[in-house]
Specification:
Elements lengths: L1 E4 L5 H17 L13 H10 L2 E5 L5 E8 L21 E8 L6 H10 L5 E5 L4 H9 L2 E8 L5 E7 L1
Parallel strand pairs: 4-5
Antiparallel strand pairs: 1-2, 2-3, 3-4, 5-7, 6-7
Length: 161
């Protein structure tokens, strides 16, 4: 797999991957994290413009997964309940992870890529997103507590050790 910055012309493929991910989440007990609309196409386009969106492509160049990664502080991580972050060192944040379902070990590939830039990583997910929670545990993340999104929804917060 090759991981690269997302290009504007990748938008339709990415939106299909997010649609697949929403169906997968709903079928696996997590219908509310993204519902039928998240992430919004405008948010995805902004991620691309901001240079924080990445895709993983197979040997033929077909996009198999997408994620957002940045190293500026994540505002929603400034307050954490029912626990604490493992440290206060600079960190990278991973968001909006989704795949087309054809590639295994996507989270591991994303983590390895991000750790080439910064070893200290944070991520959050919905309490009902059990597949993601398992993938995070498998890839060295520890549950640290609960954070609140801008809209007030809660998410389980994780950080690499």
């Amino acid at each position: 797999m090759l991981i690269r910055h997302t290009k504007p012309e990748d938008l339709s493929a990415i939106l299909e991957i997010y649609a697949h991910a929403r169906r997968f989440m709903a079928a696996n007990g997590n219908a509310t994290q993204w519902g039928n609309v998240k992430p919004q196409p405008a948010r995805v386009q902004q991620d691309i413009c901001d240079g924080i969106s990445y895709v993983g492509t197979d040997d033929e160049g077909v996009i198999r997964f997408v994620f957002v990664f940045f190293t500026e502080p994540e505002p929603t991580y400034s307050y954490i309940e029912n626990g604490a972050w493992l440290n206060d060192l600079p960190y990278g944040t991973i968001h909006r992870v989704a795949s087309d379902g054809t590639t295994h070990g996507v989270v591991g590939q994303i983590v390895a890529f991000c750790q080439q830039h910064i070893n200290n990583l944070r991520i959050d997910t919905h309490e009902n997103n059990i597949p993601m929670q398992k993938a995070l545990a498998k890839n060295g993340f520890r549950h640290c507590g609960t954070i609140y999104l801008e809209d007030g929804d809660t998410r389980l917060a994780f950080q690499t050790e």
